[in-house]
Amino acid sequence: MHAVPTLESGTRNDAASGASAEAPVRDLRRVPIHPDHWYPLAWSHEVKRGKAHGVRFAGQPIVIVRTESGTVFALEDRCAHRQVPLHAGVVKGESIRCCYHGWTYDCTGRCIDVPYLGRERLPNGVRSYPCREKEGLIFVFPGDAAIAEERPLPELGSVADKTYKTRRFGREVKCHYSFMHENLMDMNHQFLHRRQMGQMRARSLGRRRGDDWVEVNYTFARMEGKQPVGEALVFGQSRTDGGQNDKDVMTIRTCYPYQTLQIRTAAQNLVMNLWIVYVPLDAEQRTNRTFGLLSIKKPGIPGALDLAWPLLVWFTERIFKEDREIVEAEQEAHDKQGSDWNHEVFPVILELRDLLRERGVLELTPRGASHETRAEAWQPLTRMPR
Ligand code: FES
After folding, report:
1. Does residue 185 share a domain with residue 107?
2. pLDDT tens by residue, 177-206
3. 98 lines ligand 1 (CB under 6 A)
4. pTM of the full predicted structure?
């Protein structure tokens, strides 16, 4: 039976933590993701040359502009004049012109033209965000721009390796990003996927923890049935060795704020490499947009993976659908209860929850706060007691 939290911030119900039942611990589902990282906010193909595209990060409206020369930049998606969205404007050369009175902004957000005003009287512009493009993703640094250059763009799994074929996928999921991290890292939820994958049992081989990461290794045993073809494709080859499929090792890692899942064979061949991130869309961070790159090692037979690709897509979509439904159910339960009643018992997930609390930010951005105020509000959390 659940203990009913008595503190607004929630009460720790993580049974394996050893912490006092009354120790106040901030509700993880209310911890905003830290903006001082590079986040993909759009796929490259979504932002056409000479066009603007409106996106959001944790409630902040951002416009991504692809200039006529093909480069991208990102600005606050609000004209400084009347606050209308800039993404409705017109891209002209290397700048964007607001659709209303034609105020024009360059890639730094500076207002460079007001058609009915002299150049010497130009008003202030809008906020700009560091923006980069890599492997078909457009990354924006929504936090403190002064430190963006110190932070390299993330490594994106095996997407650049031609010996792999990569599926790019993404969707909106109506839950806090922390549910997504937990869902992927907790392989004890194989029961959820029993109709797709049969009866699988995961065995944890141990976990490791660093300042900004936690990872766990698993092996799997098939308890019943044969390996489905779709699963064999994802794992790179069919290994139906008498019902025991425990030679592969799956490593799942959250390296804040990104997550990876890798499968290696006993011979250390990396047969599957997933890179994924969950970008909060709304200010309350109850909806995220997932950006995923699923890379599968090509088998020895040329074209075999291309032929099987539709089946792989179908199989992974079924798995993702089940995961999406269950994490959205978790979020709904949280919303009804008003706080996190989860009774977590798995040490790996306890580590993960601590990591996400520590690396998140202190307070939600106050509505209508200035950029400077927002930057001050986004302070990293101090380490929480276990
Ligand atoms: Fe943008 Fe007037 S609202 S130019």
Report:
1. no
2. 999 999 999 998 888 887 776 667 788 899
3. yes
4. 0.85
